[in-house]
Design brief:
alpha/beta; 3 domains; globular; 394 residues
Length: 394
């Protein structure tokens, strides 16, 4: 049987390898099926016996439903699974589509089949665990993977020609210490053998669970960057201590997921962004960057992503995006100092000297024009070799 494995997401949403499809393909190929992966598009009419679609973000459900309906005209059976199909199956079922909820145990037994990719992989993908001990209101892991489990044999997921591994664990540090030590020992062995040169716990580490013992165990591992989250003020203090402990063990690159538009206020969002810049300035690190992540209700198929948090406004949301788009090329907030007197001065140049100023800045009616003028002034001063004097709203 020929099976088309389709990532039913718009191409702009597909940034990482489709791990579920790589595992599904490995399973079905072991049964003698022929499998081909398609990203963001469908195969031609009649080319495959079955089409299996995996879904990702719930705000892309309209796109996924449209793709699944079109797939019915191209194959005898269409099967839909993945994140949004598990969380909101009714959107697919009311169109008469066959839906699978949750993980497929048969496929989970297999390592990803990287030969299904169109090119040799640049990195390997694995989980050392499934689930999470937290039940955060903005996260659906507790619904998708309700039980936290250790996963043995993850080293079999690594591709022999790659030296970078992305771990998709939702909360690696929540493991029993014995299991955590076993993972670290495996990682050290793989690093010593030259199999791994870079480790990325892509979903982030739980800053609240970092202790001196944990930090000591991780010391020397090539985790680049160390990813944490500073999702709300309930993590204040925990986050800073975790960065400080890891920096004291020689880690130099950090990236922090910073949630906003949830239950936060623009002022505490400013504080959380600023704290990463302060840590960059005060610690012996290369950078502590921030990756702002706008909250969108997951149990809604809102293609326009129009949700506005209790303490936010549509204007404030757009205002922040205008600042970020002019200040950053990557969607991240990182400050190097440069011609500024300090990294904090650079941050304040763009985002305001205080939380109150940031709050006002978000509602400034000509915010994009102001940011463009600031960028132009910055270029001129850099060209002339002058320092930077922060400007206020005009």
């Amino acid at each position: 049987m020929r099976i088309a494995l389709v990532d039913a997401s718009p191409l702009k949403s597909i940034t990482l390898y489709p791990l579920p499809l790589l595992k599904l393909g490995a399973w079905r190929k072991s049964l003698g099926d022929e499998c081909v992966i398609f990203s963001g598009k469908l195969p031609t009419l009649g080319a495959f016996d079955e089409i299996w679609l995996t879904t990702r973000f719930t705000y892309d459900i309209p796109f996924a439903v449209g793709m699944a309906k079109a797939a019915r005209e191209r194959a005898g059976r269409v099967w839909v699974g993945g994140i949004s199909a598990t969380l909101l199956p009714e959107y697919f079922e009311r169109e008469g589509l066959e839906v699978h909820r949750g993980l497929l145990p048969d496929a989970e037994k297999f390592s990803p089949d990287y030969s299904l990719l169109s090119e040799r992989p640049a990195y390997s993908i694995s989980h050392t665990s499934r689930g999470c001990i937290r039940k955060c209101g903005f996260c659906m892991v507790s619904k998708l993977e309700p039980t936290f489990k250790n996963r043995d044999g993850w080293e079999n997921d690594l591709h022999p020609s790659t030296h970078k591994v992305l771990f998709y664990d939702n909360n690696w540090l929540a493991k029993e210490l014995e299991d955590f030590r076993a993972d670290v020992d495996k990682l050290r062995g793989l690093v010593a053998d030259g199999r791994i040169t870079k480790i990325d716990f892509n979903q982030g580490l739980d800053a609240r669970l970092v202790t001196d013992e944990i930090a000591n165990l991780l010391q020397g591992l090539p985790i680049k960057p160390v990813r944490f989250a500073f999702d709300g003020m309930h993590e204040d203090g925990h986050y800073q201590r975790a960065v400080e402990m890891m920096a004291a063990r020689g880690f130099r690159e950090f990236m922090t997921y910073v949630l906003y538009n949830f239950k936060d206020t623009p002022k505490d969002f400013y504080y959380r962004l600023r704290e990463s810049v302060r840590l960059t300035q005060e610690l012996p690190v290369n950078y502590v960057g921030s990756f702002p992540m706008r909250y969108q209700p997951i149990l809604e198929a809102d293609r326009g992503r129009s949700f506005v948090g209790k303490h936010w406004t549509t204007t404030a949301k757009k205002g922040f995006m205008n600042i970020l788009q002019i200040q950053s090329l990557s969607g991240q907030v990182t400050c190097a100092g440069g011609h500024f007197d300090s990294k904090l001065q650079e941050f304040e140049y763009w985002f305001g000297k205080t939380a109150d100023e940031f709050d006002r800045l978000l509602s400034y009616p000509h915010i994009r024009d102001l940011m463009k003028r600031k960028k132009g002034a910055l270029r001129m001063r850099r060209a002339r070799g002058f320092g930077i004097t922060p400007t206020r709203l005009g």
